[in-house]
Design goal:
Three copies of one chain form a homotrimer.
Chain A lengths: L2 E2 H8 L2 E3 L5 E2 L1 E2 L9 E4 L16 E4 L11 E3 L3 H13 L7 E2 L4 E2 L4 E2 L4 E2 L4 E2 L4 E2 L4 E2 L4 E2 L4 E2 L4 E2 L4 E2 L4 E2 L4 E2 L4 E4 L4 E4 L2 E4 L5 E4 L4 E2 L4 E3 L5 E4 L4 E2 L4 E2 L4 E2 L4 E2 L4 E2 L4 E2 L4 E2 L4 E2 L4 E2 L4 E2 L4 E2 L8 E3 L4 E2 H12 L1 H29 L1
Parallel strand pairs in A: 4-5, 5-6, 6-7, 8-11, 9-12, 10-13, 11-14, 12-15, 13-16, 14-17, 15-18, 16-19, 17-20, 18-21, 19-24, 20-25, 21-26, 24-27, 25-28, 26-29, 27-30, 28-31, 29-32, 30-33, 31-34, 33-36, 34-37, 35-38, 37-39
Antiparallel strand pairs in A: 1-3, 2-7, 22-23, 39-40
Helix pairs in contact in A: 1-2
Amino acid sequence: MEKTLEDLAELVGGEVSGDGAIRIKGIKGIAEAEKGDITFLTNTKYLPLLKTTKASAVIISPEIKTNLKTPALLSQNPYLAFAKILRLFYQKTYQSLGISKHSFVGKEVTLGEELSIYPFVYIGNRAKIGSRATIFPGAFIGDGVTIGDDSIIYSNVTIRERCTIGSRVILHPGVVIGSDGFGFAKDGNQYFKIPQTGIVKIDDDVEIGANCCIDRATLGKTWIKKGVKLDNLIQIAHNVEIGEHTVSAAQVGISGSVKIGSHVTIGGQVGTVGHIKIGDNVTLTARCGVTRDIAPDQFLGGFPAIPHRKWLKAQAGFLNLPDLRKRIAEIEKEVQILAEELKKRGEENE
Amino acid sequence: MEKTLEDLAELVGGEVSGDGAIRIKGIKGIAEAEKGDITFLTNTKYLPLLKTTKASAVIISPEIKTNLKTPALLSQNPYLAFAKILRLFYQKTYQSLGISKHSFVGKEVTLGEELSIYPFVYIGNRAKIGSRATIFPGAFIGDGVTIGDDSIIYSNVTIRERCTIGSRVILHPGVVIGSDGFGFAKDGNQYFKIPQTGIVKIDDDVEIGANCCIDRATLGKTWIKKGVKLDNLIQIAHNVEIGEHTVSAAQVGISGSVKIGSHVTIGGQVGTVGHIKIGDNVTLTARCGVTRDIAPDQFLGGFPAIPHRKWLKAQAGFLNLPDLRKRIAEIEKEVQILAEELKKRGEENE
Amino acid sequence: MEKTLEDLAELVGGEVSGDGAIRIKGIKGIAEAEKGDITFLTNTKYLPLLKTTKASAVIISPEIKTNLKTPALLSQNPYLAFAKILRLFYQKTYQSLGISKHSFVGKEVTLGEELSIYPFVYIGNRAKIGSRATIFPGAFIGDGVTIGDDSIIYSNVTIRERCTIGSRVILHPGVVIGSDGFGFAKDGNQYFKIPQTGIVKIDDDVEIGANCCIDRATLGKTWIKKGVKLDNLIQIAHNVEIGEHTVSAAQVGISGSVKIGSHVTIGGQVGTVGHIKIGDNVTLTARCGVTRDIAPDQFLGGFPAIPHRKWLKAQAGFLNLPDLRKRIAEIEKEVQILAEELKKRGEENE
C-alpha cells in the first residue's frame, strides 16, 4: 500500500506542512524509519531524534513543530493519528477459518456466522458464540457462556459457566473469567467455602490483558463495563464493578465489592481494600493503595492514597528524614544552651 | 426448593425472630432480594438497606438486631449461616461425566471411580487420580502425579511431574504447580541452572486461586498444608511451607524457603524475603513487606513490617511531614531570634 | 550412580578435606541427608546444623570450614559446586518422544530432528522448530514463530505470531509471549486501539518463569537478551529491552519502552515507569519503584528509588516519626517558655 501525505492527513483530520504529494509506504519508530516511512513524535523527550531520522514525514503536534525541514502531518492528537495510520498499513481484514474438527463443541450450542474456532477449543453446552468471533487453541468456553460478535478469545483463556462476553471484546492469552470469588466463612478453626453462584459480565469493546483474573460474584455479577481496558496480570475480585472507559495498567489488584466509576485511570501495581467506591474521572498513580471511598475527579498517589501533589511533598520529606532528624538534634542542643544561659543570667541577676 | 425460616435456623444452628413459618425460596444480596428470598447483613455499613429490602427474612447477628420488622434468622456467625444456606440452595450434587475420548491418558495410570475427565486433558504415565475427581479441558497432569478424591482441577491448570495433590483440593484455572524453583548459581558472568529435583505437596482441602504459581523444591518439597486457601495470582517460591488453615489474599509473593505457620492471615500484595519463619496466628496486613522472622500472634503492617498500630502512626506522621518541616523551620527561626536577643542583652549588660 | 568425594571435587574444581575415598550416592539438604549423601552449606545461618547432619560429606567454602569432622568438599563457589553435583546425580539425558498424532501441525512448518511434541500442542503455519525441542501439552505456537534447538516450552504456554525464541530457552507453564502491548490513543471520551505490529525476540539461554507476560512491540521488537532469567508472574511491557544475564525475582513490572542493561539484578515486586534507561550492573532491591534513568553500578531501594543505604536510613527515620513529632512538640513548648522568660526579663529590666 502507498499513500500520499495528503491522503493520510485527510484520513486523520490533520494538516500537511511541506510537500503533501510525498508518497508514504509504511510507518516506523523515529530511529528505525527509512525513506518512504512516516514516523511520529508524541514525547518531546525524543525531539532531538527528528534531526537524524531518515523518515520521509513525521506526525507531530502543531505546537512542537519548530523549523521542521521534514514534511509533517500536523495533528492536535498525534498519538491518535499515528494509531489510525498504523491500522491503515497493518490491520488485516478478518477471514473466517471455520470450525476446526479438532475442537469440541457441546450440546445445544448456538454458533454465529463466519467463525474461526481453532483446534483444541472446548465449547460447553448451551454456549452462544456471535458471528465472526475468533477462538484460539486451548480456550475453554464453559456451559451457557455467551460471546458477542467480532470478539477475539486468545489461546488458553478460560471463561467459566454462564459468564457473558460482549461484542468486539478481546481477551488476551491466559485470561481467567469467572473463577470462584475468594469467599470463606470462618467455622471454628477452619474455613467453610461460600459457593460463588454469580457470574462475570463483560460489556462491549472491553480488552483484558494476558493472565488477568476476574472472579465471578458470590451472588449477582462482577461487571466490567463498556470500553474498559485492562493491562496484564490484574486481579479483579468478586462483585467488583468497573465503569465505562476506565483503564488500568498492569498488576493492579481490586478487592471484593469495589465499585469503580467511569473514565478512571489506574496506574501499575495499585491496590484497593474491599467495599469502597471510587468516583468518575479519578486518577490513581502507580502503586497507590486506596483504603477509603474516593470522590470523583481526584488525582491520588501513595499508600494510603492522598492527593498526588501532597504525596510527592511527603515523599520528598521522607527522603530528607535523616537530615530532619539532624536538624532537630541540633535545635535541641541549642535550646538547651539557651535555657542554661538564661538560667545562669537569672542567677547572676539575683 | 423451598424451606421455612425455622428449617433454615435449624440447619445453621441459629434462632428465629418473628414468623418462623415464612417460606424461603432463595437467597440474594440485600439490594437485589425479592419476596421469598432470605438475605443477610454481615457488614454494619449496609444497615440502612435493611429498611428498604424486599427480602422476606434476613440473617443477622443478635447484637445488631434492633427494632427489626423483617423476620430474622439470628446467628452468632451470620456469615457462616449465609454460606451454609447458599450451599443448600445452589450446590449441585456431583455427577460423573466419565472419561472423554478426546482426553489423553498415559501408561500405567491408576484411575478412581466416577471420574469427570474432559476433552483435551493430558494425564501422564503412572499418574494416580482419585475417585470423583473432575479435570477440566486443557489441564496437564504430569508423569507420576497423584490427585486425591473429590478434587477439582480447572481448565488449563498445570501439575508437573511427581507432585501430589490431596483430597477435596480445588485448583482454579491457570494454576501452575511444580514449575522449577528460581535457582541459579553464579558462574563467572553467567548463571548456571540448579536442577529443581523436589516436588510440591498439596494437602487435603486446599484451594488455590486462578493463575497462582507454586514452584517445586530444589531438594525435598514445597508444602501447602491442610485447609490453606490462596487467592489469585500468588507466587510461592521453592521450598516454602505454609501451615494449616492459613489464608492469603491475592498477588502475594512468598520467597524461597520461607516457613509460614498455621492460621496465618496474609493481606493482598504482601511480600517476604527468603529463608524466614512466620509464626502461627500472625496477621500481615495488605502490602506489608516482611524482612525478618516473625513471632507468633503478631499483627503487622508496613515495609519493613512492624506492629500495625505503630505503622499506622508512622504513616500518619509521614503524611504530616511537610507540616513537620514547616514547624522545624519556624522553631529554627525562633531559636535564632532568641539566641540573638540573649546575645544582645548579654552585650548590653556588659 | 556412585562417586568418590575426590571424583566430585575434581568435577567442580574444589579440594577435599578429610577422606576423599568416601563414596557418595546422592545429594540432599542438610537436615534430610542420610549416610552416603553429600550436603551443602551456603548460608552461615544454617551452620549449627552441621553438627547434627547425617551426611557423609559437605560442600562448603574454605573460609567457613572450622573444626569440621565431616569430610568436606572445599569450594570457592559452594553454590555452583552444589548445582553441578545436583545436575550430575539428577539430570536425565534427553530422549525424543517424537511428534504426537494428537498434536496439530500447520502448513509449511519446518521441524528439526529428535523432537518431543506432546498431544494437544498447536503449531501454526510456517513455524520453525529447532532440533531436540520439547513442547508440552496445550502450548500454542503461532504462525511464523521460530524456536531454537534444545528449547523447552512447557504446558499451556502461548507464543503468538512471528515471535522468535532462541536455543536452550525454557518457558515455564502459562507463559505468554507476544500478547498485544497496552497501547491506546485517547479519541474523545474513548480509547482507540493502537495495533501492536511488532514482535518479541528471546535470545539464547533465557529462562522465563510461570505465568509471565511479555508483550509484543507496537513497532519493532520487545527484546529479552542472552542469558536473562525471569522468575514467575512478571510483566514486561511492549518495546522493553532487557540486557544480557540480567535476573529478576517474581512479580516485577517493567513498563513500556524501558531499556534495562546487562547484569542487572531486580528484586521481587519491583516496578518501573515507562521510557527510562537502567544501566548495567544495577541492583534494584525488592519492591523498589524506579521513576527515572539510573546510571550503571547503582544499588537502589525505595520508591522513588534512591541509593539503598540512604533508603534504609530514611526508612528508619520513618519508623521513628511518632517519636520525632513528640520531640518537636517538646521543643516548641520549651522555646515558648524561653521566649516568655526572656520577654519577662526584658520587661523587668525596663
